């Protein structure tokens, strides 16, 4: 049995799952420190499922860390070593960052000798004296985090690793992020992603320690795992090292939960929460990955992120009955205090749903005098907003199945334009927690191969094997390994016959 918990902006949802059965679910308000909301949810499950149930693992998904980036708070000062000279000097690290973000993070940046060409040839040799001098400078300034980024390191990571070993010997207290472990091909975007990761390591370590303590206090002797952006999981130690891989776990958990509960592997998932609506596409049971640079807190990055569109529309979104507008303001977790049906004085989309007869919650008498024409117009506006997101995500004109999940799915009545069918699920309100609970171990590889040195078939085999090895090292059961994505792209802009191969495999978690 597994416990899955998803910490959203409004609610913290939890489920207890045995194989394919949801045994119990809990929904509590998210607290500012997040751990209190987690404790409240675990309390409910432990009360329902005492010693007679053997909980094998606890999997938590949270987008809590992205708030630190958006608010520019609780970020670690980080220095950057770029191994590149004599190349790439015109565009220094953080060149296009918002000034307030740069001021919140940047320690110093250093452009040093090293790096490789696309085929692995060295741009220049590592200068060890340079590395020692820079490391001592960083240590003297008491910088806690360091990013090491080498040109084309996803192809040849040796320079990053070599420099990391030198830094670790001189200053073992510095937390090191290697860019090739975070991002893809693309120097600046990979560097940006690595810097964001480095800035979050201390906060993530603190958060995970607090969650572990909360679980321990409740007497759960089960390992903790954290959901990743791609719908797979990682252990808590890995999550503390690579926190940037967790910042979009909420939407992916909902999509994985929708696939599990519906049995569909290919569909569009609409997740309506208390504050926002996220829409994404399931491909072979997993969220489709964004194929272009992803903007995080105003910064271009290229690490693994789901292709998700979001708008400010949720069950707590405020409605202006005169202007006939929705949001973007939301009362979020104060819905049960401030909305009309719960005795408050603010008109929300939930009030509209109750007035339209879509859901019987709260006190209907509080909204039965709302103007019927206004209610219908707001309902239509909600549908149009969601239909627009669906249309933007679709790659063909064909209608596709649409799965509605999240507590706010009550806002949608009837069918949706562009949907072959609209699927409403049992336990849709906790699909995010279900997605966390069923998470598998994942391994992904993206590499460039010159077909002058290796044939296409062997290159694919090599990439898939490397991805499988990553899964096994991460605790996946070798007997359950499944290839869920394989892509090859010719790179005509590079000399020679060159292709980029991406392979992703998953496996069930193997717990001793």
Which labels suit this protein?
512 residues; alpha/beta; Rossmann fold; six-stranded mixed β-sheet; 13 helices; 23 strands
The spatial strand order of the largest sheet comes to 3-2-1-4-9-10-21-23-22
Helix content: 25-40%
**CATH architecture annotation of the domain at 73-204:** 3-Layer(aba) Sandwich
Main pleated-sheet profile: 9 strands, mixed
* Residue windows where pLDDT falls under 50 for at least 5 positions: none
Helix-strand category = alpha/beta
How much of the polypeptide forms β-strand, as a percent range? 25-35%
Distance from first to last alpha carbon: 14 Å
Please tell me the overall pLDDT.
91
**What's the tally of helices?**
13
CATH class of the domain at 73-204: Alpha Beta
CATH topology of the domain at 73-204: Rossmann fold
Radius of gyration: 24 Å
- Report the strand count: 23
Dominant shape = globular
Any overview of this molecule?
This protein is an alpha/beta fold. Among the domains are: 73-204, 3-Layer(aba) Sandwich (Rossmann fold), CATH 3.40.50; 439-507. It is 32% helix and 27% strand. The protein is built from 13 helices and 23 strands. The strands form 5 sheets. It has a 9-stranded mixed β-sheet, sandwiched between helices. Strands 11, 12, 13, 16, 19 and 20 form a 6-stranded mixed β-sheet that branches. α8 (249-262) packs across α12. The radius of gyration is 24 Å and the shape is globular. It starts with a strand and ends in a 5-residue tail after the last strand.
């Amino acid at each position: 049995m597994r416990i899955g918990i998803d910490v959203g902006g409004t609610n913290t949802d939890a489920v207890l799952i045995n194989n394919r059965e949801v045994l119990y679910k809990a929904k509590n308000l998210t607290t500012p420190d997040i751990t209190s909301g987690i404790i409240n949810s675990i309390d409910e499950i432990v009360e329902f499922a005492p010693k007679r149930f053997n909980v094998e693992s606890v999997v938590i998904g949270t987008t809590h860390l992205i708030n630190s980036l958006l608010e520019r708070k609780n970020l670690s000062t980080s220095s950057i070593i770029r191994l590149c000279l004599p190349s790439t000097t015109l565009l220094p690290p953080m060149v296009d960052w918002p000034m307030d973000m740069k001021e919140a993070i940047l320690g110093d940046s250093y452009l040093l000798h090293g790096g490789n060409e696309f085929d692995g040839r060295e741009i220049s040799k590592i200068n060890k004296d340079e590395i020692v001098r820079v490391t001592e400078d960083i240590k003297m300034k008491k910088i806690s985090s360091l990013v090491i980024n080498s040109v084309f390191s996803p192809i040849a990571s040796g320079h990053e690793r070599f420099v990391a070993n030198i830094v670790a010997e001189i200053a073992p207290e510095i937390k090191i992020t290697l860019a090739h472990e975070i991002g893809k091909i693309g120097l600046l975007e990979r560097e940006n992603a690595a810097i964001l990761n480095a800035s979050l390591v201390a906060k993530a370590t603190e958060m995970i320690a607090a969650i572990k303590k909360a679980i321990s206090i409740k007497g759960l002797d089960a390992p903790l795992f954290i959901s990743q952006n791609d719908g797979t999981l990682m252990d808590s130690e890995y999550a503390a090292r690579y926190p940037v891989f967790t910042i979009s776990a909420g939407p992916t958990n909902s999509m994985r939960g929708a696939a599990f509960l519906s049995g569909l592997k290919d569909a569009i998932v609409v997740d309506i929460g208390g504050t926002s609506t996220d829409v994404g596409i399931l491909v072979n049971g997993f969220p489709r990955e964004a194929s272009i640079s992803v903007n995080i807190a105003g910064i271009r990055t290229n690490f693994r992120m789901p292709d998700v569109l979001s708008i400010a529309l949720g069950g707590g979104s405020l409605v202006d009955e005169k202007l006939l507008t929705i949001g973007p303001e939301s009362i979020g977790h104060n819905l049960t205090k401030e909305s009309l049906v719960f005795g408050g004085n603010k008109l929300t989309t939930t009030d509209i749903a109750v007035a339209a007869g879509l859901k019987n919650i709260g006190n209907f008498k509080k909204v039965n005098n709302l103007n019927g024409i206004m209610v219908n117009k707001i309902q239509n506006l909600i549908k149009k907003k969601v239909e627009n997101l669906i249309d933007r995500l679709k790659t063909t004109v064909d209608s596709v199945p649409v799965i509605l999940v999240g507590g706010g799915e009550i806002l949608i009545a009837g069918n949706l334009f562009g949907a072959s069918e609209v699927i409403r699920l049992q336990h849709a309100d906790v699909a995010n927690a279900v997605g966390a609970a069923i998470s598998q171990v994942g391994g992904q590889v993206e590499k460039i191969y010159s077909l002058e040195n290796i044939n296409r078939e062997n290159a694919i085999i090599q990439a898939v094997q490397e991805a499988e090895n990553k899964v096994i090292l991460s605790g996946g059961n070798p007997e359950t390994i499944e290839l869920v994505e394989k892509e090859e792209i010719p790179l005509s802009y590079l000399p020679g016959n060159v292709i980029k191969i991406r392979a992703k495999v998953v496996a069930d978690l193997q717990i001793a």
